[in-house]
Write a structure and sequence with these properties.
Elements (H helix, E strand, L loop, with lengths): L2 E3 L3 H5 L7 E3 L1 H6 L3 H4 L85 H9 L11 E3 L2 E2 L1 H8 L1 H10 L2 H12 L13 H19 L1
Parallel strand pairs: 1-2
Antiparallel strand pairs: 3-4
Length: 216
């Protein structure tokens, strides 16, 4: 499948041909052979050495795949570099290298009935408003300081004391995933929490715009 350079992840999502692969300008410079490396891929974003992208049994090779619509075994997981084969980690505390997300509550002696998940009104718009400010988003750490967080860090922070308590009892990743899940039908898949700053903000913006359209 052909691969094209897009200025942003949002532009990639808006492409007419949904089978087309996409790379960012910075990625194309880092990987000048991006066209050849994506010849057998379909609907991939910033992928390299992803052999075929039709069998996600070894997704650790897929660096930042954003749309696995062509993967026969990756049922919707948008970006498999962290969560191999995971589609909905509703019970997982740590998705790093996870192959089976069932029963992860038991790892910390908790169950779903013991977990109180707070909601955030217009969560995607709220996250974008906070994260889009200068130096407010840093995807290298969950929380860098009181005014700088990663995507998951902002979700937990904006959820207030209940968000912080859920984070303390579980993990930042788990807390953010659950808060997103109960606050909006617009899905945010686990690997999106490991994007680079530019890609993360693009996806946060996309979700906010989608949410805004739905509330009109």
């Amino acid at each position: 499948m052909k691969t094209q350079i897009f200025n942003s992840y949002s532009d990639f999502l808006s492409r007419t041909d949904k089978d087309l692969n996409g790379v960012s300008p910075s990625f194309s410079k880092e990987h000048p052979n991006y066209e050849k490396e994506n010849e057998t891929n379909k609907a991939c974003w910033n992928c390299f050495r992803c052999s075929g992208c039709f069998d996600c049994s070894d997704c650790s090779r897929c660096s930042g795949c954003s749309d696995c619509s062509g993967c026969s075994r990756c049922s919707g997981c948008s970006g498999c570099s962290r969560c191999s084969r995971c589609f909905d980690c509703s019970g997982c505390f740590d998705c790093s290298g996870c192959f089976d997300c069932s029963g992860c509550f038991d790892k910390k002696g908790l169950n779903e009935e013991q977990i109180k998940v707070p909601t955030i009104k217009n969560i995607h718009q709220s996250i974008y408003e906070a994260a889009s400010k200068k130096d407010a988003l840093d995807m290298s750490a969950w929380h860098k300081c009181n005014t700088t967080h990663c995507r998951a860090g902002w979700v937990v922070t904006l959820a207030g004391d209940e968000g912080k308590e859920l984070e303390k009892e579980t993990s930042t990743l788990f807390a953010a995933m659950q808060i997103y899940k109960v606050s909006s039908p617009i899905r945010v898949f686990p690997p999106r929490f490991f994007d680079k700053n530019e890609e993360a903000l693009d996806d946060i913006r996309r979700c906010a715009e989608e949410e805004k359209k739905g509330t009109k």
